[in-house]
Amino acid sequence: MTDRPRSVRVLVVEGQPLLRDLLARLIDQQPGMRAVALCDSARAAIEATERAIDVALIGPHVPDGGGVPLGEALRARSSRLGIVVLAAPETRDLLRRVPAEDAAGWAVLSKNLSLTSPALVYALTSVAAGRRVLDPAIRAESVEWRESPLCRLSARQREVLSLVAEGLSNTAIARRLALSPRSVEAHLRAAYAVLGVGSDPARNARVDAVRAYLAHGGAERETAMGEIPLI
């Protein structure tokens, strides 16, 4: 009599109860896969790694910090643990944290309306086997982002530029961000230098900065899931 193959044991980390339960139900419906622990926070997830777990599925709503950083923390406690991260499309800073190409057992999927159950199940199965899965939309976005000058801006500089793009004045931006107008101006000058605008007195640096910001993808946009299997 041959032994049955062991089920893939999945830890689900998601702060929203409904989504957490739906993900667990989807996993339990798959042959050879079961949700063995459900956590609503990063802290609980880290404690759960003391159990026998093969894959951690990190949802998009983890109140005390999720995404790739949580995956790295879980992997640090269990080096063979597979990690699947559902990333909100607008989370651009996460894209810079996508593990290197040779990192095995990682999957990063774009959380949008095109994400299908088969794609998620494929990712869970793949990382459990030590393979790497990256949503094609995030892969393209990640390369684009790393090559973009916006990547060299600080988070505050990008925040200020986004409000300039909305048409706000420096005074309004200062009020929105609880900064002084002088601080807003300093952030803008630093952003101008990174974007290579402001050196021509015949041009409006503010307008050129917004154009560069939008041209390099500063405005949030939807990303689409590619066909599975993902690569």
TrEMBL record:
Residues 9-126 form the Response regulatory domain. One of its GO terms (molecular function) is DNA binding. Gene3D superfamilies: 3.40.50.2300, Winged helix-like DNA-binding domain superfamily/Winged helix DNA-binding domain. Keywords: DNA-binding. Residues 146-217 form the HTH luxR-type domain. The keyword Nucleotide-binding does not apply. One of its GO terms (biological process) is regulation of DNA-templated transcription. This is Response regulator transcription factor. It comes from Microbacterium laevaniformans.
